[in-house]
Amino acid sequence: xxxxxxxxxxxxVRFRAGGHxxxxxxxxxRKSEAQTFLLRLLEEHAAKARDEQPQHTxxxxxxxxxxxxxxxxxxxxxxxxxxxxxxxxxxxxxxADINRRAIAEHISARKQAGVTDATIRRDLAxxxxxxxMATRWEWVDTNPVTAISKRSLKESRPRTRFLTRxxxxxxxxxxxxxxxxxxxxxxxxxxxxxxLLGLTVRAIDLERREIHLDKTKTNAPRRVPLVDTAVVTxxxxxxxxxxxxxxxxxxxxxxxxxxxxxxxxxxxxxxSGIKDFRWHDxxxxxxxxxxxxxxxxxxxxxxxGHSTLQMSAxxxxxRTDDLHDELRTLAQKRSQERQKEAAKPTDGHSxxxxxxxxxxxxxxxxxxxxxIRSLMLYPAELRARIAFRRGGGNSPSDCGAxxxxxxxx
Length: 409
Description:
The protein is mainly α. The chain folds into 4 domains: 3-49, no CATH class; 58-147, Tyrosine recombinase, N-terminal domain (DNA polymerase, domain 1); 165-318, Intergrase catalytic core (hpI Integrase, Chain A), CATH 1.10.443.10; 348-408, no CATH class. The chain has 17 helices and 6 strands. The strands form 2 sheets. The chain has a 3-stranded antiparallel β-sheet with strand order 1-2-3, covered by helices on one side. It has a 3-stranded antiparallel β-sheet with strand order 4-5-6.
């Protein structure tokens, strides 16, 4: 006999099929949902008895996905969050019922809830991974997420918030003593928080002035060079008189490592008056200082451990020295061209006469008033006109006429 029953706050179902007792958790605190779950299971077992393809549910696929998928712990935690959001709209459906329309309804519901486009994209990425695994299990034939257009879901701009050197100095002054060396190494090496806090003493090579990282976000080991400030900071930590015996560079009094110094970091930000700043922005600060100092993006990607050069290209807008140099070169070129144009030989007589006419010289005065044409009123202009009419070339009269014209202007 099929029935539903409760164990604690969760409802379970049980029934007999094929001579075996079947017990399954409905994963719900509502009896109605458990009854629906029971009916679906009965239909699936009836389909198996008829040699038909069983209808696998979203919940079944998710359970098997997390049991078999080889993903990083942080990625799995993100997928858990995405699964929680998807269950609200897709949790009662079978995989066969999750099509373009169902996914579009999920996107619409998330938008109405005020969720950003970037978060919805993460939901779709999880669903795509889920259905890719389901096709491998032969539970479905196609991946419906691949048919969804993401043009309407704009990806968020990459965050490039960084500190100026004055802001970092203020943050360091406000930080507690245990946090100060962490901040220094963060902005001098560009390491991620987990790479920094999990740094071991064996990973440091002071002779080569390098840090060898085996465990990274991309699972690719890399070497991080150390500048003088970083070397001094590391030596001060390792040679501290009261340092406990610990394999970690940053350790507590009992030798254990720091996991997330968020309280000390938050208090330092508040005391220094710095807003809209996260721990990962220290990595952005390192990259920004690198580019502003003239470092190239290829070497920056190697130090940061970026999988592609495109990830480092976000900092390219901070390098403006080459733009200033190019503009300075163009300005000098234009200046030289103007100087060459001015140095070309010209007919001094015709050029000066044209200037006189353009500026209203006596040769263009149209009046019969003898007072205006009097030498007492315009002696310089009249002398210039008389001199130019003589056409003296480079004669002293021409020089005098040019001087008279210059005084008039």
